[in-house]
Amino acid sequence: GQSLEQPSEVTAVEGAIVQINCTYQTSGFYGLSWYQQHDGGAPTFLSYNALDGLEETGRFSSFLSRSDSYGYLLLQELQMKDSASYFCAGEDNFNKFYFGSGTKLNVKP
Amino acid sequence: GAVVSQHPSWVICKSGTSVKIECRSLDFQATTMFWYRQFPKQSLMLMATSNEGSKATYEQGVEKDKFLINHASLTLSTLTVTSAHPEDSSFYICSASDRDLHYNEQFFGPGTRLTVL
Questions:
Q1: Pairing relation of β-strands A103-108 and A84-92?
Q2: CB < 8 Å to B108, chain A
Q3: Contact (CB<8Å) B108/A50
Q4: Phi then psi dihedrals of residue A37, to 5 deg
């Protein structure tokens, strides 16, 4: 089965750094993705980790520890437009993605 | 970047009717397409995986006779909700991937909001 857990909501101020954690129990785990979704919109891809370690893409970084079944998304220099829901998604060895419950990020001025 | 479209974006129908949703990859050939359902303020739930030219693989608990999926070509997959009922009202989102071109990245369509009266 597939199970991914994330905090339901996080609040931070503009310019700050925030970390969104994801723990997973995925049979045949292959990799972990992160997606951003604004209200009423479609998810957009942020990052993917197949190997342990940190992947950096601009203000966003993602980390994976396969031994701990844990990953996180790090958002730096927060902007108001970063207010959205963030989902981790575990990929299994059939190339299917199963999404976590999502974390609503509120960025305040 | 890769673009995926869905049609219609919004549909309202009466209970008992069938609704067809199209998902198209516009600028790449999608070896695999996925169909998700999302209820308000909830996560995306994978319904089925669709590969061109073969039968879709449904997730546990998803009725294949109710949610008919056809993947006619490398750029088109359709989801038909048969005999829709109010509990089928949801946001249906497709995604497409081409592992040879966009490794491990799925491209999502804009979604279709279905309301069954």
A1: antiparallel
A2: 35, 42-44
A3: no
A4: -140, 120
